[in-house]
Specification:
533 residues; 23 helices; alpha+beta; five-stranded antiparallel β-sheet; Immunoglobulin-like
């Protein structure tokens, strides 16, 4: 019976993997990040600068030069062949991650095969793994290297090497070096740093110009990676951007929060390692990298999925509930799913940032801290009280956010278009000539139209001579974005911008005296009502 269950779960994993691969291959924009890797390395082989490459979708190569050396072999085959190989290898990496995590969940050997299969299936269905498949990302491989090393799965003499290699490909695993030091694994820390420096040195020897470009400036240019305020960036930095923190306060506040979060997470990870729970310690440090990195896109967030399963697999009502909540957040986009019921901006902020908030909570409490209420209840022998405490905690959290004047989304995919973009009819759709724009403008200060797409809403319009400035607010409490007024045609000024949500949006036009002359909010919210186009 047990073998049949294992076979059924593995069959479910294979089915989920095949369906995912087929759906990815059917997309027009499939494996867009892999396309960037392939194009950048091919361009490099042709003698062009690595960091000057820009793909058709506008994406540049953002990893250290050593990553280009690791990716070098993919250009030896045709890109369609590489795509299929990459997808299959990603599925294999999911299984490789599931094995040590499953072993951590179940110490006994009898249930391990079933648990490993279940972990692999849940991972495959999670948003981070699906994002890895969709974009053709390296993140799952980086997680695998750091996990195996931090858990001590590799031979003792090689421990630290995989973290060093992973860090040379993507910088965030360098936090594991600090963890090795905190856990008194000094030799592992030394091997990790030596490997990292050796990989960087090899890249410098082979690609000296690219190495100088990267380490002398490109490494700090986070804006090359995309709009960091978008909901996909579930790091502390991204959440602060969505809060509307001003640019002068942001760096100091971010550094302070990250320092506290990482310090607490590393201390707790050291305690877990000392208690003989290296798997929990490694996953906790991985979650700290997600919280601390300036950019933590969905495909980076494999660690919180592993943490959710470890929480579910432990004793205590509070931990299990926390694990289920985190797993739900890592599988579905709560901000999108619950948008219709989260009428308060603060509650919407809670849903939209559930992953980031969950990771921060995990880093600050560890795998044991969230079970304080359950532990007290076990001593008293009342499971009912545990559920009551959990319910009160959830209600208090929702109530706290409900009264906060926080911005809902803060323009997660906001972009205002410039004069060079006017030629694109997708961005400028209400009028396409001087005569058309003149007739579209009705004499009102602002006349605009909206176009709803699957993941965003576009606003395009015309302003009269009475308008001196146009600003867009994503929600109450958010900072405004100035919308450029473009003289695209003689005697006519137009504008265009996009945002993921306009449920709480407000467009304000100001006159030459600095006072608002027109305000539009219901008109923007109407773009999200059923039947709107």
């Amino acid at each position: 019976m047990r073998e049949r269950r294992v076979s059924l779960v593995w069959a479910g994993f294979v089915a989920a993997a095949l369906v995912s691969v087929v759906l990815v291959l059917r997309r027009e924009d499939r494996l867009s990040d892999l396309h960037i890797y392939y194009g950048a390395v091919a361009d490099l082989r042709a003698g062009h600068p690595l960091y000057s490459y820009v793909a058709e979708n506008g994406g540049p190569f953002t990893y250290p030069p050593f990553a280009a050396l690791v990716l070098w072999p993919i250009t030896l085959a045709a890109e369609p062949v590489v795509q299929v190989f990459w997808l299959l290898t990603t599925c294999a990496a999911v299984v490789a991650v599931a094995v040590p995590v499953g072993n951590t969940l179940v110490p006994g050997r009898s249930r391990r095969p079933l648990v490993v299969a279940a972990v692999a299936l849940v991972l495959m269905l999670s948003a981070p793994v699906q994002s890895n498949l969709r974009f053709g990302q390296v993140s799952i491989f980086v997680v695998l290297l750091a996990l195996l090393d931090a858990m001590g799965v590799v031979p003792p003499r090689l421990r630290g090497v995989l973290v060093g290699v992973a860090s040379a490909i993507k910088l965030t695993p360098l936090l594991f070096v600090v963890y090795f030091l905190a856990a008194r694994r000094y030799r592992d820390a030394a091997r990790a740093m030596a490997t990292f420096l050796a990989c960087a040195g090899l890249a410098a020897a082979v690609l000296p110009a690219e190495s100088w470009t990267y380490w002398a400036g490109t490494v700090a240019q986070t804006r090359r990676i995309g709009n960091l305020a978008s909901l996909g960036n579930q790091s502390v930095h991204g959440m602060l951007l969505r809060l509307g923190v001003d640019e002068t306060s942001l760096p100091l506040l971010w550094v302070a929060l990250v320092a506290v979060i990482c310090a607490v997470a590393l201390l707790r990870a050291r305690q877990l390692a000392a208690q003989g729970r290296p798997g929990h310690a490694a996953v906790l440090v991985g979650c700290a990298t997600v919280a601390a990195s300036p950019v933590s896109w969905t495909h980076h967030q494999v660690w919180p999925v592993l943490a959710a399963m470890l929480l579910i697999g432990t004793s205590g009502v509070a931990r299990k509930v926390a694990g289920v909540a985190l797993l739900i957040a890592m599988t579905a986009s709560l901000g999108v799913v619950l948008d219709a019921v989260s009428l308060r901006p603060g509650v919407q902020f809670l849903f939209e940032n559930a992953r980031a908030l969950g990771v921060v909570a995990l880093c600050l409490t560890g795998f044991g801290g969230v079970a304080v209420a359950a532990a007290r209840t076990r001593r008293s022998g009342s499971t009912g009280r545990a559920w009551l405490r959990v319910g009160v905690a959830v209600a208090a959290t929702v109530a706290f956010f409900a009264v906060q004047p926080l911005p809902a989304g803060a323009d997660p995919t906001f972009k205002a278009y410039a004069l060079d973009d006017v030629v694109n009819p997708r961005y400028f759709f209400v009028c396409r000539s001087a005569a058309a724009c003149a007739s579209f403008g009705t004499g009102a200060p602002v006349t605009f139209g909206t176009r709803r797409e699957k993941t965003k809403v576009r606003v395009n319009g015309v302003v009269s001579a009475s308008v001196a400035r146009l600003e867009y607010y994503s929600a109450p409490g958010g900072s405004p974005r100035v919308i450029p007024l473009l003289t695209a045609y003689p005697g006519t000024r137009v504008f265009s911008f996009r945002s993921a949500t306009m449920t709480h949006g407000r467009l304000v036009a100001y006159g030459t005296d600095g006072r608002p002359i027109s305000v539009f909010d219901d008109e923007l919210a109407a773009a999200f009502r059923p039947g709107s186009r």
